[in-house]
Description:
Largest sheet: 2 strands, antiparallel
Distance between the termini: 48 Å
Helix content: 25-40%
Low-confidence stretches: none
Structural class: alpha+beta
Number of strands: 4
Number of helices: 4
Strand order of the largest sheet: 1-2
Strand content: 5-15%
Shape: elongated
Mean pLDDT: 87
Amino acid sequence: MAEKKRSRKKYDCLKCPAYCCSYAHIPATDEDVTRLAEYFGLSFAAAKKKYTKKGDKDTPRVLRHQSDEHFETICQFIDTETRNCTVYHARPAICREFPTQTRCGYYDFLMFEREVQDDPEWVATTS
């Protein structure tokens, strides 16, 4: 029986300005809120109120956002200077799973734009 070959990821989140964190609706499940509550030492109700807001019928609760120089708004847990997640170990399930492939379209887009602009710091916006 042949062993399953693991594909190596072809992106580096630490070199990205957090495109995926600028999604308007980043779902937050009850399990996500519980994880955040434990991380911050808050009750479930307090964490839900402080870190989430009402979404829509498909995503009833979503993470709150903050202002951002590149994307207008971004997840409140992104450090806008370092572009890193400040709650990495308590991040929501959707953030843990993304991207589900070995490639990230945002990262490919970023690297292409940086090469075309001949600027290793370039942050292209998608809007």
